[in-house]
Amino acid sequence: MSTLSFRGQVRYASGATVDVAFDAEGGVTALFGPSGSGKSSVVAVIAGLLRPNNGLVRLGDETLVDTSRGVCLPPERRRVGLVSQDHLLFPHMTAEANLRYGMRRAGPAPTIGFEQACAVLDLTELLGRRPAELSGGERQRVAIGRALLSQPRLLLLDEPLASLDAARKGRVLACLERIVAEWNTPTVLVSHDQAEVRRLADRVVVLDEGRVIATGAPDEALAAAGPLSWRDETGPMNLLRLEGVTQCDGAWTARVAMQELALPPLPAPPDGPLYARFPPHEVTVAPPGDVGVLSARNRLRGVVRRTVEVGGAVFVAVELSADAETSLWAEVTPQSAATLGLAPGAAVQCLVKTSSLRVGS
Ligand SMILES: Nc1ncnc2c1ncn2[C@@H]1O[C@H](COP(=O)(O)OP(=O)(O)OP(=O)(O)O)[C@@H](O)[C@H]1O
What we know:
Strand order of the largest sheet: 7-8-9-3-10-11
Helix content: 10-25%
Pfam families: ABC_tran, TOBE
Largest sheet: 6 strands, mixed
CATH architecture of the largest domain: 3-Layer(aba) Sandwich
Mean pLDDT: 87
Bound molecules: adenosine-5'-triphosphate
Protein name: Maltose/maltodextrin import ATP-binding protein MalK
Keywords: ATP-binding, Cell inner membrane, Cell membrane, Membrane, Molybdenum, Nucleotide-binding, Translocase, Transport
Number of strands: 23
Domain Mop: 293-361
CATH topology of the largest domain: Rossmann fold
Domain ABC transporter: 1-234
Low-confidence stretches: none
Number of helices: 8
Number of domains: 2
CATH superfamily of the largest domain: P-loop containing nucleotide triphosphate hydrolases
Radius of gyration: 23 Å
């Protein structure tokens, strides 16, 4: 198993600096962060497309970059399989020829065979087609297959799902899950999608403004990184993984941290993991105990872990009882935070209207 040890500093002429260090020991390591946080710079340094001003990058016992000794291996000698958003398949070659091109770069004792890769990535029907005759998701699967067949010591996936719609995303995600389970090739996944990260990653490195602001298991690292990193395209967003989703008399419910959550109606029984998304400003914080009759059906009990003031609002991280791994953010005014005594250790309940929840994969 190749461990990636990354230390790199890049200073751009624009004044932007990326200064990042992390270790990735097998499994899937996600680089997560908002736009401009430095993810692509780190990928480019690992792949050999960008030489850092200072850096020491090692993969297993091989040194890819050591600026102090003037070492910077060219991309083709790194055995890093890169799949990026603009999957660069050869347009004049069929899917099969693209895949076999990947195999030409493999070492003498391949561990991943052609038929096996086609089966896992669902490519068998597509082999005779050229890239222009494939959908975005199909092209992405061929690109992943080609990278895998080159027997990389490290798979580098740079936002592999970014340009796909929800259905195609689900299909490629399922393929990635199978790849991880089948071969356990050490993988670095770049993403700004929390759900993707939680589903695939063993550990997360959260970047912001060119620095590492948290690392650890997905829930832990994302919670530690604070509300500004818990974003989707619409702004700060909570994301809770739902367990035991069931329907009874037309009402859908699920469990989160051993507590019950009432869900809005779902079109169909879930196929794969489901998440509830809701913005922190949709959460009402109340003291524990009876708060009387309210329209909000969801009352999640927890303990305040920390508070962060951002732009005149107070974001409160609440660790849900019975599962300290799961937390959510509530946004309140400084006045409410003071009145309610929202400080670390305070017991609270978080009221969330069912209609505020968006449920999806
Ligand atoms: N070629 C360049 N010249 C000057 N500045 C750059 C260059 N490439 C990146 N930067 C700056 O370096 C910082 C990190 O950028 P980087 O592309 O690594 O971030 P990112 O997290 O990959 O962003 P995105 O999610 O938008 O791709 C940003 O401030 C960016 O403006």
